[in-house]
Write a structure and sequence with these properties.
The complex is a heterodimer of chains A (about 200) and B (about 350). By secondary structure, chain A is an alpha+beta fold. Chain A contains six helices and five strands, in the order H-H-E-H-E-E-H-E-E-H-H. Chain A is elongated and about 95 Å long. With about 350 residues, chain B is mainly α. Chain B has one domain. Chain B is about 65% helix and about 5% strand. Chain B is built from 13 helices and two strands, in the order H-H-H-E-E-H-H-H-H-H-H-H-H-H-H. Chain B has helices spanning about 10-40, 55-65, 75-90, 120-140, 145-175, 180-185, 200, 205-215, 230, 240-265, 275-285, 290-320, 330-355, and strands at about 100-105, 110-115. Chain B has a two-stranded antiparallel ribbon with strand order 1-2. Classes of the chains: A alpha+beta (about 200), B mainly alpha (about 350). The interface of A and B includes residues 40 and 41 of A. Chain B: This is NADH-quinone oxidoreductase subunit H. Chain B: Keywords: Cell membrane, Membrane, NAD, Quinone, Translocase, Transmembrane, Transmembrane helix, Ubiquinone. Chain B: Its EC number is 7.1.1.-. Chain B: It catalyses: a quinone + NADH + 5 H(+)(in) = a quinol + NAD(+) + 4 H(+)(out). Chain B: It is found in: Cell membrane; Membrane.
């Protein structure tokens, strides 16, 4: 019969030699292999990563926890078009669209924005199709952050409070990142001063 | 009024041996993990204390605080007796092992051995064969078929391998002509004469003894009584908390005792090469007294014996993380059709060599 993979090995049922039947040579061979590993581990190569202190580097194509990006002046980019939700194979994304009111120009980039935006991390498979579908470059899967484990199922539904990028990129607290009215005022002034 | 027996130095030695056995067994659990990790390119325990040295303490706290569980329908008395028996028999057999030669203070001569009896080897064998009761009772009292199967396996395995072990030992006894472990040790090195350790005279017997020691201590590749894949957990399936701990602990004590017995029987015990030359050098060139030189030799010999024991314990662990477990029919075939005939052949061979005057 023709071999499909070129890796086929011809097996022979030869009777075992005395050394093979005596069993001890094979044991010594095995012992020498493990001993080599013993000294290798004692000197240098260990496969262990001591986790909290030492972290395994992420793959360059890793896709982690979602973030909703802001633009260069701090406005939310998302226009609640729903393309990400359509693209999502796991149907993990739900959103409610709303109309931007007067005075909120510093908060939202377009006339339409997402009143609520939720990603269900229990359903999400981190495929990155939402990121590809987004015409506004708003939703983005972070390359260095994983969805952390939690105890309750409802804690896996990430709302805007946990998804929207903080205004200050140095602020690591994810919760409570909605702009205060003062910040929104300052932003809208900054935008009106910009040349059109 | 009851007259209490006076506590002699022997009771102190027994207490020390008891403590040392427990300490070594404790740190065997740590060493097992470190050695396993190193053999598999891992790190091993390193969180509790420096290099994870407090890991056994953490284990003890865990085992003592876990829930005590008694299965429904179990015989409570026997259920508790099982691990106790396993532990007691494991600890008792270390009493006759000569850990060192004599130490002399003035006119007081201390023998670094729990009990010096001229049936030492019989004592060890008697106690070791009692050890199977701990396992059997544990498996029976659990009221669980898997436990019972594990216990039956343990029982038949221990009995099968004890035969070959005893016959391997007979060859040693033919050379030594005594059952006293101290005598056997001293015969392996006599002042002014060139004496080999028994391993040189009994290489085949040693291999048989070693294989049987693995089977007797229920260590891999002969750990069939406790294989998870076939028997859920073996004879200690239903055990929890410190009762389970005692079973595991008894196994390590058994490993320690088996290592000590092998060191004494085949590797010269507390003897080390050129010990008499060293003693004479201290006496003649350095002007020491004979007793203090002898004491020094005894202490070095004690440390040497522990070195041999640790080497054997390491070997036990090394084999455990190298070889897979036997299938049960393979185990029985090895014991009955290979090891026992080999042991008988070894007896005949030894007898022939003694008659031929080649070894004595």
């Amino acid at each position: 019969m023709q071999s499909l993979s070129n890796r086929a090995k011809k097996l022979e049922a030869k009777p075992m030699t005395l050394a093979e039947r005596a069993y001890l040579p094979a044991i010594f061979q095995g012992l020498s292999i493990t001993m080599r590993h013993f000294f290798r581990a004692a000197t240098k190569k260990q496969v262990t990563v001591r986790y909290p202190e030492e972290k395994r580097p992420f793959s360059p194509i890793f896709r982690g926890l979602h973030v909703l990006k802001r633009d260069e002046v701090g406005r939310e980019r998302c226009t609640a078009c729903g393309l990400c939700a359509v693209a999502c194979p796991a149907e993990a994304i739900t959103m409610v669209a709303g109309e931007r009111k007067k005075g909120e120009e510093g908060l939202y980039r377009e006339e339409k924005y997402a009143v609520s935006y939720e990603v269900n991390m229990l359903r999400c498979i981190f495929c990155g199709l939402c990121e590809e579908a987004c015409p506004k470059a708003a939703v983005y899967l972070q390359p260095d952050k994983m969805a952390p484990p939690r105890f309750e199922r409802d804690e896996f539904i990430y709302g805007k409070d946990r998804l929207v990028e903080p205004v200050d990129p140095n602020a690591r607290s994810i919760r409570g990142i909605q702009l205060t009215p003062e910040q929104a005022q300052a932003l809208s002034q900054k935008i009106s001063q910009q040349p059109a | 009024m009851i007259e209490l027996p006076t506590l002699g130095w022997q009771s102190i030695v027994i207490l020390v041996v008891f403590g040392v056995s427990l300490l070594i067994a404790t740190y065997c659990t740590y060493a097992e993990r470190v050695i396993a990790a190193f053999l598999q390119d891992r790190v091993g325990p390193d969180r509790a204390g420096p290099f994870g040295l407090l890991q056994p303490l953490a284990d003890a706290v865990k085992l003592f605080t876990k829930e005590e569980f008694f299965p429904a329908g179990a015989n409570r008395a026997l259920f508790v007796l099982g691990p106790c028996l396993a532990m007691i028999t494991a600890l008792m057999s270390s009493a006759v092992i000569p850990f060192g030669n004599v130490i002399q203070f003035g006119t007081n001569v201390f023998n670094l051995q729990g009990i010096e009896v001229n049936i030492g080897m019989l004592w060890v064998f008697g106690i070791v064969s009692l050890g199977v009761y701990g396992v059997m009772i544990g498996g029976w009292a659990s009221n669980n078929k898997f436990s019972l199967l594990g216990a039956i396996r343990a029982g038949s395995q221990n009995i099968s391998y004890e035969l070959a072990m005893g016959m391997a030992l007979i060859a040693v006894l033919m050379i030594s002509g005594t059952l006293s472990l101290r005598e056997i040790t001293l015969q392996q090195s006599v002042a002014g004469e060139w004496h080999f350790w028994n391993i040189v005279k009994q290489p085949l017997g040693f291999i048989i003894f070693l294989v049987c020691a693995f089977a007797e201590t229920n260590r891999t590749p002969f750990d069939l009584p406790e294989c998870e894949t076939e028997l859920v957990g073996g004879y200690h399936t239903e055990y929890s908390s410190m009762k389970m701990g005692l079973y595991l602990f008894a196994e390590y004590v058994n490993v320690f005792v088996a290592s000590a017995v092998m060191s004494v029987l085949y590797f010269g015990g507390f003897n080390f090469p050129f010990q008499y030359e060293l003693r004479d050098w201290f006496v003649n060139s350095q002007g020491w007294e004979l007793t203090s030189a002898q004491n020094l030799i005894s202490i070095v010999g004690l440390l040497g014996l522990f070195g041999k024991i640790f080497a054997f314990i390491f070997f036990f662990m090394w084999v455990r993380w190298t070889l897979p477990r036997f299938r049960y029919d393979q185990l029985m075939r090895l014991g009955w059709t290979i090891l026992i005939p080999l042991a008988i052949f070894n007896i005949l061979l030894t007898g022939g060599l003694i008659l031929g005057g080649i070894i004595k």
